[in-house]
């Protein structure tokens, strides 16, 4: 019997234009990057489950924290005319039909409008709840985080990866446990059939998640979210951008730079060597060039 693999559909969502120096080491002074904030629909055929990975930009910008409005003004040109809900409607799918929403992390351009997804189970990385409640200490304090962003009764927060041993089931209902999928160190097999993996991808924020999906016998798709913000970094043409914070310290977009480099190197290895001999396509959340080249694959179509 032939295997029917999951499908991955990019969704038509919003875009933003941050200062390039936040991302690229060789950015020119005053340069801006206009980039999408991509979301994806994954359909798992054997269970019929519909998964959305990341929720892009909130359609109604005024619904973000009032204090965030000044920050949003620095990200223009910015558009939230299209969001995940409207993108799904292009394929006659309602947000209420989504079974899982996987959030890579809780920055504003990835959280969209969770309340649209009335039936979904939300999956977040470790410490996401503490971060949203600003219980992670001054290093991670963000006055614009929303403590009630995710529905408490429908949110599964993955535990931190084990320090020494893997294989211990942490979710009996779903049979979930951390395992290795070389060269990726820690993954969770969502459906226990080796087709959709939640990937621990540290560096950008604690608990940052990626998604790895087998879409055919000869192809994997790796959804990298904010593990890397620009394809030139992935290619090794430039480095992560740096700037001085209010205290005069040199900082980057990634909270743990060492971990970010490790995640980046794993992505490069997957792109170069594949996974167990099967090619892997890396897709970055903010890759405008990739978006332009793949418009024909957007929902209701798929990669």
TrEMBL record:
Q: Does the keyword Metal-binding apply?
A: yes
Q: What is this protein called?
A: Metallo-beta-lactamase domain-containing protein
The UniProt entry, under Pfam families, shows: Lactamase_B
Keyword annotations for this protein? Hydrolase, Metal-binding, Zinc
Source organism: Exophiala sideris
List residues of the Metallo-beta-lactamase domain: 36-286
> By its UniProt entry, which SUPFAM superfamilies does this protein fall under?
Metallo-hydrolase/oxidoreductase
Q: What is the lineage of its organism?
A: Eukaryota, Fungi, Dikarya, Ascomycota, Pezizomycotina
Per the similarity annotation, which family is this? Answer: Belongs to the metallo-beta-lactamase superfamily.
- CC cofactor: Zn(2+)
